[in-house]
């Protein structure tokens, strides 16, 4: 201990111990800070993983919705409408997903209503209707919900699933051609077929005839429906084919007679042939005609074109003045104008029939 006092050595030792304690505290602080930083990193990693998992779940849910909607052609239309990049595109996509969800809900609601009107049928039959609705919606301008609405109309009419499937596609396509609600279109189609006892195998042909008629005349499908509504009871009695009467409506529409007026004109014309005696019978005789000439062996009227041809020949035979007098007596004031239009435009009527002969596929061309 030479050169150093005891007190000095003691202070040196104490200072050394203090420095060691400070170093230990510093190491402990560093360790604590490192642990805290590690915990922070772990929390951040966990948050990142949680966010990633949430994003994956959201993407999976979105993909499920997209797969369901692609089956009905709606996802493309809905999301395409709101496409884009950035914040606006993201907002649009969110709105698109909302539209998808609403469409799915609408589909389920529509199918539940159809199921309620198709009780007693098998699961396979119900599924065939659902698949048919999806296919028709894909091929026409209408959504699944609108197409299902048309199917619901058919179900309420009492058609079986097989009959419904046969009627749905032509009926909805008719609505697309006429730009009207498909439910109204199937109602117009089925009413015409039922009134004239047209078999279901002729459904597409009937829809084509209706489309060809209103697209080649001065009327729309709703006006044609009104004409048919007034004419159908008489058409069923006369046995006239649908194309014959549609040809008449096409001609009358070009001369301003359409809708209920055209249907009433046809009905009044045909009523004249149902009277077996009286003044009109004598008027027929003045024209050199007999009512029996206008009927077939089974009691049905001869074709509308043949009727007009017989009247036209009678006009040439007796002269215009005598014909007008007799025609007014036979047909009355309300139908006489229609008869005159037909006689003056017999060639035009024949052209309308030719147009109707080319109706195959008209519903899908319109």
List strands and helices in order, with pairings.
Blueprint lengths: L5 H65 L3 H8 L4 H31 L6 H17 L4 H13 L4 H18 L3 H14 L7 H13 L5 H18 L3 H12 L6 H12 L7 H8 L17 H15 L1 H25 L1 H12 L4 H4 L1
Explained architecture:
- With 366 residues, the protein is mainly alpha-helical.
- Helix content is 78%, strand content 0%.
- The radius of gyration is 41 Å and the shape is rod-shaped.
Query: Averaging pLDDT over every residue, what do you get?
Result: 80
Helix percent reads over 70%
Tally the helices: 16
N to C succession of SSEs: HHHHHHHHHHHHHHHH
Question: Quick recap of the structure?
Answer:
With 366 residues, this protein is mainly α. The chain contains 16 helices and no strands.
List keywords for this structure.
mainly alpha
């Amino acid at each position: 201990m030479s050169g150093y006092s005891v007190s000095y050595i003691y202070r040196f030792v104490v200072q050394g111990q203090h420095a060691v304690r400070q170093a230990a505290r510093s190491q402990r602080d560093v360790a604590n800070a490192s642990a805290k930083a590690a915990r922070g990193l772990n929390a951040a990693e966990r948050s990142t993983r949680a966010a990633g998992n949430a994003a994956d779940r959201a993407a999976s849910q979105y993909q499920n919705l997209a797969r369901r909607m692609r089956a009905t052609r709606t996802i493309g239309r809905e999301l395409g409408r709101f496409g884009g990049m950035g914040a606006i595109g993201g907002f649009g996509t969110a709105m698109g997903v909302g539209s998808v969800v609403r469409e799915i809900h609408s589909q389920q609601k529509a199918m539940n209503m159809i199921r309620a009107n198709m009780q007693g049928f098998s699961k396979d039959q119900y599924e065939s209707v659902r698949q048919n609705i999806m296919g028709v919606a894909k091929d026409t301008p209408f959504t699944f919900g609108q197409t299902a609405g048309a199917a619901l109309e058919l179900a309420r009419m009492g058609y079986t699933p097989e009959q419904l499937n046969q009627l749905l596609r032509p009926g909805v396509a008719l609505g697309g051609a006429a730009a009207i609600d498909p439910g109204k279109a199937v109602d117009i189609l089925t009413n015409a077929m039922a009134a004239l006892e047209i078999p279901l195998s002729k459904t597409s042909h009937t829809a084509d005839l209706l489309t060809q008629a209103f697209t080649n005349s001065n009327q729309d499908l709703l006006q044609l429906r009104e004409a048919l509504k007034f004419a159908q009871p008489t058409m069923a009695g006369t046995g006239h084919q649908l194309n014959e009467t549609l040809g008449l409506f096409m001609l009358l529409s070009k001369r301003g007679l359409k809708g209920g007026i055209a249907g009433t004109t046809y009905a009044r014309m045909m009523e004249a042939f149902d009277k077996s005696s009286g003044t009109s019978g004598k008027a027929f005789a003045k024209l050199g005609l007999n009512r029996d000439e206008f009927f077939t062996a089974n009691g049905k009227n001869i074709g509308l074109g043949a009727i007009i041809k017989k009247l036209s020949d009678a006009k040439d035979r007796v002269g215009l003045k005598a014909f007008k007098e007799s025609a007014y007596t036979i047909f009355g004031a309300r139908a006489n104008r229609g008869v005159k239009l037909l006689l003056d435009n017999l060639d035009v009527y024949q052209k309308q029939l030719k147009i109707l002969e080319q109706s195959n596929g008209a519903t899908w061309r319109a």
